[in-house]
């Protein structure tokens, strides 16, 4: 076991045969059922014991009917946001939704008129694009800038796009580049958004996965920051925040997330759109797991982040020593590593082929996150370190074979 923790993140647990998308979907995704899967964003760690116990306890009752959301569930969400993110919210602000992507599509439909602009910042989690295009809204791209291995928001270009836009979708922290946005950056965003009266959809699904040395600032939590007094009213009227225990506690298959919407008018519109489709959020297991995780999961999460930080360091050292052609964009949050493979001089098809066929690995091709991801690959490090280091050995061996 790595480090002094009562949770064993080194345990290798086979997920094969559990219908896991990441493991059992390999043939379909990569045309090869034997590759080591480092793609879809869930982790190969057991969920926290408090979650497993809550699910087992609920399973013991043999009737699994439509389930209400108890006030203890809302208290757990409120308590978590206050404890971990210093954000005070009230129960009536919370809309339970099955997933953040569902919520994003609902927000586009409910809050943005057809053909009106929505700004997204590639390279970015790809459903951000489809939430705009599939709902017949106008996709406005504000690509991040990469300088000396560090990504930032292009505020000058954002200012130019803003007059055409109705909403901006912020990925905070950012998947796939791993940035944890700082207060000064959020303030700049707020200034532009307020000037143009933009709605902001802040997807904070990775907010709990912050690597040591970094601090996540929820945009909406700036409402009580004395430096942000000029934005307080705007935040409460225009910002919607999506949070979830799914990535944090490795329970994305359970499907329960929260949209925090202080503005009652926006909330009503969202409720109408979600209600129109009668989207189910009555699952007794997701409710039990979410409440347990947010109530008792702190220690597990703290231990997880130490483990992931150690993994990150091991990967970074390995790349410098053995694979200098591949550069790690230093992650500040998430368990997703953004690898700059441009020095391999392969086009995107060749790069994918190299990882799948020569290395036997299933990573996410950077190009699926937009053109700005060309030449990059995303590696999911949410797995025991033995598996990650073995994967790197495979890349080194394959490159050696190529004479690289
Ligand atoms: C930024 C971001 N938002 C949303 C999701 C998925 O959310 P959900 O499964 O709740 O729809 C992911 C999953 O990787 C993500 O990275």
Give structural notes.
By secondary structure, the protein is an alpha/beta fold. 40% of the residues lie in helices and 14% in strands. The chain has helices at 21-24, 26-30, 49-60, 71-85, 100-111, 127-133, 155-161, 183-195, 232-238, 264-276, 284-296, 298-322, 348-358, 385-402; strands at 36-37, 94-97, 117-120, 138-141, 145-147, 150-152, 165-171, 199-203, 239-243, 257-260, 327-329, 336-340, 361-362, 364-365, 376-380. The strands form four sheets. The chain has a seven-stranded mixed sheet. Helix 3 runs antiparallel to helix 11 (284-296), helix 4 (71-85) runs parallel beside helix 11 and helix 12 (298-322) packs parallel to helix 14 (385-402). It is globular. The protein binds pyridoxal-5'-phosphate. Residues 41, 99-101, 125, 171, 175, 203, 205, 244, 246, 252, 257 line the site of pyridoxal-5'-phosphate.
Write the layout of secondary structure elements.
Blueprint: H1 21-24, H2 26-30, E1 36-37, H3 49-60, H4 71-85, E2 94-97, H5 100-111, E3 117-120, H6 127-133, E4 138-141, E5 145-147, E6 150-152, H7 155-161, E7 165-171, H8 183-195, E8 199-203, H9 232-238, E9 239-243, E10 257-260, H10 264-276, H11 284-296, H12 298-322, E11 327-329, E12 336-340, H13 348-358, E13 361-362, E14 364-365, E15 376-380, H14 385-402
Parallel strand pairs: 1-13, 3-4, 3-7, 7-8, 8-9
Antiparallel strand pairs: 2-10, 5-6, 9-10, 11-12, 12-15, 14-15
Brief summary:
With 404 residues, the chain is an alpha/beta fold.
